[in-house]
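User: quick one, sequence for these C-alpha cells?
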C-alpha cells in the first residue's frame, strides 16, 4: 500500500532501512525542526501539525523513534468520528506533562484522553506492570490496561467485545512492546511476539473497522554511529517488523478520505 503510507523523517533514523526507502512511500522531511526530540512545546507541535497537513498518505504513519510517539496526538486529533485507541506499548505514556506548555513521548496518551473529543476509550496492550500502575485513577474509567501476562491469557475476541465500544478503531504501535527477537528500540523491549501482535490486529479487523495506524520505536543512532554493527542490526530487525506490520494492515484499511476533515 505504497500510496497509503507516510514516513516522518525527524532524524534520519530510516536511512538504513533500504527496503523501506524503495517502497514508494510518502516522506515528510522534518529534519530542520529543533527541540522536538522526546518532547516539544505547544508551538513546536503546531509547526509539526502544519507540515503534516499536506501529506497525501494518511492510512499508516511511521513516526520514527519512540521519542516522537507524541505525534500520535496529532493523528488522533484529525479523527472526526467516535473511536477507540488501541495502544501497543510497554509504557502507558500517561505521565504528567513536564510543564503545562509541553507534550512528551511519556505524556501524550494522557493528553489524548483529556483533549480528543471523539476518543471514547484507550486499550493498552502489552504494557508493563509499572506502566499499568501509572494510569491515573481519574482516567481509569476510560482506560483498559492489559499487561503481557493478562493479554496472553485473554482471548482477543473477549478484549474486543468487552473493551472496545466503538466501531472505529485507531491503532498506535510502539515496537518497544515487542520481544528482542522482533525489534530493538531505545526504551528496552517487552515480551510480545510480532506474530501475536499481527494476530490481534487480524482479530480487530474482523470485528471492528480500523481507521488508521501509526508505528514508532526505531533505534536512534547519530550519523556518526549509524553504521556501527548494533545500529545496522537494529535497522534490519526494525525494518522487517515495519514492513510486516504495514503488510498486515494494508488490506484492512478503507481507502480515500476516511477520517479527516477537509483542509
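Assistant:
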Amino acid at each position: 500500500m505504497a500510496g497509503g503510507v507516510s514516513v516522518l523523517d525527524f532524524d534520519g533514523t530510516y536511512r538504513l532501512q533500504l527496503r523501506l526507502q524503495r517502497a514508494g512511500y510518502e516522506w515528510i522531511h522534518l529534519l530542520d525542526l529543533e527541540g522536538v526530540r522526546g518532547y516539544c512545546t505547544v508551538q513546536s507541535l503546531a509547526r509539526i501539525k502544519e507540515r503534516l497537513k499536506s501529506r497525501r498518505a494518511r492510512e499508516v504513519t511511521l513516526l520514527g523513534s519512540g521519542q516522537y510517539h507524541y505525534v500520535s496526538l496529532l493523528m488522533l486529533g484529525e479523527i472526526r468520528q467516535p473511536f477507540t485507541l488501541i495502544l501497543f506499548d510497554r509504557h502507558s505514556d500517561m505521565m504528567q506533562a513536564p510543564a503545562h506548555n509541553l507534550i512528551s513521548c511519556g505524556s501524550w496518551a494522557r493528553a489524548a484522553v483529556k483533549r480528543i473529543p471523539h476518543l471514547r476509550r484507550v486499550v493498552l496492550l502489552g504494557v508493563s506492570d509499572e506502566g499499568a500502575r501509572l494510569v491515573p485513577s481519574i482516567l481509569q474509567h476510560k482506560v483498559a490496561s492489559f499487561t503481557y501476562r493478562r493479554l496472553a491469557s485473554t482471548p482477543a475476541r473477549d478484549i474486543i467485545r468487552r473493551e472496545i465500544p466503538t466501531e472505529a478503531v485507531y491503532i498506535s504501535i510502539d515496537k518497544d512492546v515487542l520481544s528482542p527477537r522482533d525489534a530493538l528500540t531505545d526504551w528496552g523491549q517487552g515480551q510480545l511476539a510480532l506474530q501475536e501482535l499481527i494476530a490481534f490486529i487480524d482479530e480487530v479487523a474482523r470485528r471492528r473497522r480500523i481507521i488508521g495506524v501509526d508505528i514508532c520505536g526505531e533505534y536512534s543512532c547519530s550519523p556518526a554511529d549509524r553504521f556501527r554493527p548494533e545500529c545496522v542490526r537494529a535497522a534490519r530487525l526494525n525494518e522487517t517488523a515495519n514492513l510486516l506490520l504495514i503488510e498486515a494492515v494494508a488490506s484492512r484499511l478503507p481507502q480515500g478520505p476516511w477520517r479527516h476533515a477537509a483542509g
